[in-house]
Amino acid sequence: MPIIVNLDVMMAKRKMSLNELSEKVDLTLSNLSILKTGKAKAIRFSTLEAICKVLDCQPADILEYREK
């Protein structure tokens, strides 16, 4: 898939664990883990907004498009 999820990179830059992000964004660990590993097929804008707010970043910091 040409969409790359860089959630782990942003979490590392902010020194935030998956557990901490899960609590602050109010998402289950399993759903965040699916997103973090790039296995998610979709993401709600409200979820993306919450993640960006907590990590103080832009959507482009988390999602990247790469041609194959």
TrEMBL record:
Family annotation (Gene3D superfamilies): lambda repressor-like DNA-binding domains
All residue ranges annotated as the HTH cro/C1-type domain in the record: 7-62
GO molecular function: DNA binding
Superkingdom of origin: Bacteria
InterPro entries assigned: Cro/C1-type_HTH (IPR001387), Lambda_DNA-bd_dom_sf (IPR010982)
Entries under PANTHER family matching the protein: DNA-BINDING PROTEIN, DNA-BINDING PROTEIN-RELATED
The name this protein goes by in its record: Transcriptional regulator
Organism encoding this protein: Epilithonimonas arachidiradicis
